[in-house]
Automatic annotation (TrEMBL):
Pfam families: HTH_18 (PF12833). It comes from Flavobacterium hydatis (Cytophaga aquatilis). GO terms for molecular function: DNA-binding transcription factor activity; sequence-specific DNA binding. Keywords: DNA-binding, Transcription, Transcription regulation. This is HTH araC/xylS-type domain-containing protein. PANTHER family: ARAC-FAMILY TRANSCRIPTIONAL REGULATOR (PTHR43280), HTH-TYPE TRANSCRIPTIONAL REGULATOR EXSA (PTHR43280:SF2).
Amino acid sequence: MPEFKHTASLTPEWQQDFVNDLGCTLIDNKLMNFPKDKATGSGYFIEISQDISVLIVDVTLNEPMRFTRMPSEEDFWIVYYDLSDNFSKHFVDDIKHQIGYKSKLGFAIIDSHIKSTYVSVVGERSFSLRLYIRKSFIKNYFHDVILEQDFKNVFNDKKRKMFYYGHIDSRSKVELYNLKQQKMNDSNYEFSLKSVAYKLFGFFLERLNSNMPKAGSFLEKDLNAIMKTQEYLLSNLLMPFPGVKLLSGLAHMSISKYRSLYTNIFGMSPATFFKNEKLILAKELLESGDFILISDIAYELGYSKTSYFSLIYKKHYGNLPNEVFKAKSF
């Protein structure tokens, strides 16, 4: 797979790599159109202030490609949001993470000194936004005690830089979804992008002030263990919820540690996640036309009573299963 290496910075000069080496066209040093033989779509970069910039990328690859951002000499955080239509792969220090709208991890904080690679699915829309925030600017928002206790490894240049993966908070997801519906060549797009960037930055600061320090300090091996239990849940949606005791055992953690880490990463309990995913599957089965009766689907999903299945389905979606059910035709 071809690899395109590029730089990143708080100022727009980095875009010249895409013009010189990839064949992109640049308009007003902001709108960057990709060559159609490689990708359909554009990127948009603006400086919000001398300490914050925002980049949004909305493309569909026409051929396989790895985009590798090389380590920067500037000292900033890349706060990353991914709302791609399918799974994308993000490699940080050669460790792979699945991201995108269908992934449960669409949010990241990456140090500018760490190399990262982005691989999207050919033919699938890739949509992501990056806030570039100078570290010294972030320091102004926290008391020295908080920095010393919770962020010393992040701001201490002598120590290995940290990175964090987690879920996109609901407020940010709404703003990103609305921005995703707009076109970059619209006359008011820059205004909309700035507005969203300010809101995301505010939500990000709130998150840092609340649970982010604890969430960001877990080890990579713990994240991998949690993700394995996530895969287990997704592979067993036709069964009853296995229980936190079994899941914590699979992760080789105590129940309390597992429950806390899982909630920090995904923003919900394992039981809530399992129920939500089971109901998403239920909706797909109801609309598939592969079943004769609704009760067949209820039993397929492990519900012993159709009435109970209908009750929780309505509570989740606001309508009854029979309102969306497509019966199998013969």
